[in-house]
């Protein structure tokens, strides 16, 4: 059955701590060349992980790979979270220096 790979990173906050999870997965589709179907399945999987998260999800990214090629990048943010706090955490991830989290 046709498939695609997806790498999902989710940043969650539990009280004062922020933790990230990175998940590699394989998703099944009828036609991996149908980007509409691929995006629909990717969105469903992302929503499941957000719904099942134990803590508040702040933001995340997903990279979809088909036949070894990166074909889709998805970014998402929690609109209900404090935007300044989310920006600060994103900035930590963008830092070129090593950061103790």
Defining traits:
101 residues; alpha+beta; 4-stranded antiparallel β-sheet; 2 helices; 44% strand
Helix content class: 25-40%
Percentage of residues in DSSP E strands? 35-45%
Radius of gyration: 15 Å
Total count of helical runs of at least 4 residues? 2
Q: Which term fits the overall shape?
A: elongated
Tell me the domain tally.
1
How would you sum up this structure, described in words?
- With 101 residues, the protein is of the alpha+beta class.
- The chain has one domain.
- Helix content is 30%, strand content 44%.
- Strand 1 and strand 2 form a beta hairpin.
- The longest helix has 18 residues.
- The protein is elongated, with a radius of gyration of 15 Å.
Summary?
The protein has helices at residues 35-52, 83-94, and strands at residues 3-14, 17-28, 56-66, 69-77. The protein has 101 residues and is α+β, with helices and mostly antiparallel strands. The chain has one domain (3-94).
Q: What's the topology here?
A:
Layout: E1 3-14, E2 17-28, H1 35-52, E3 56-66, E4 69-77, H2 83-94
